[in-house]
């Protein structure tokens, strides 16, 4: 995602300092995003940057996705950080959180998975998944969404493009953007 963010910013003729100031970010944080050293950027931040650069949030979200390690997905990835007070807010305060939660719940139910089964597949706690589905997580990170999509797709190898597209769709749902589904070639 870092290279994509840097290219879009450069193409728009905006400096890091200007973009960071305009979006209420620290310039060092924006630099870390561009270097790819931020492990789990929040959807709210990614959405704001996409709007500022006049692209769909899916463009940035899909560029973040990378192959997951082989083996049990949850055991190979870092655990989600504990929630801060800023992350746990009333669902009606964050328009994107309830929509994302409803989409995740629908996808989980369509796969006939319990929260516990999805938690086992992702290495997340079932209560954290419940908080996401209830719209209580203000800005889940892209790694979190990637892990959920991987868990929803089930065991076995998955095409990276399909994983990235699914993450992009959920990012669009969060950002309130129209979802564009691409037909398979």
UniProtKB/TrEMBL annotation:
Transmembrane segments: none annotated. Residues 5-60, 104-160 form the HTH cro/C1-type domain. SMART domains: HTH_XRE (SM00530). It comes from the Bacteria. Gene3D superfamilies: lambda repressor-like DNA-binding domains. Pfam families: HTH_3, HTH_31. GO terms for cellular component: cytosol. One of its GO terms (molecular function) is DNA-binding transcription factor activity. Keywords: DNA-binding. SUPFAM superfamilies: lambda repressor-like DNA-binding domains (SSF47413). InterPro entries: Cro/C1-type_HTH, Lambda_DNA-bd_dom_sf, TransReg_Diox_bact_type. PANTHER family: HTH-TYPE TRANSCRIPTIONAL REGULATOR (PTHR46797), METHYLPHOSPHONATE SYNTHASE (PTHR46797:SF1). This is Transcriptional regulator with XRE-family HTH domain.
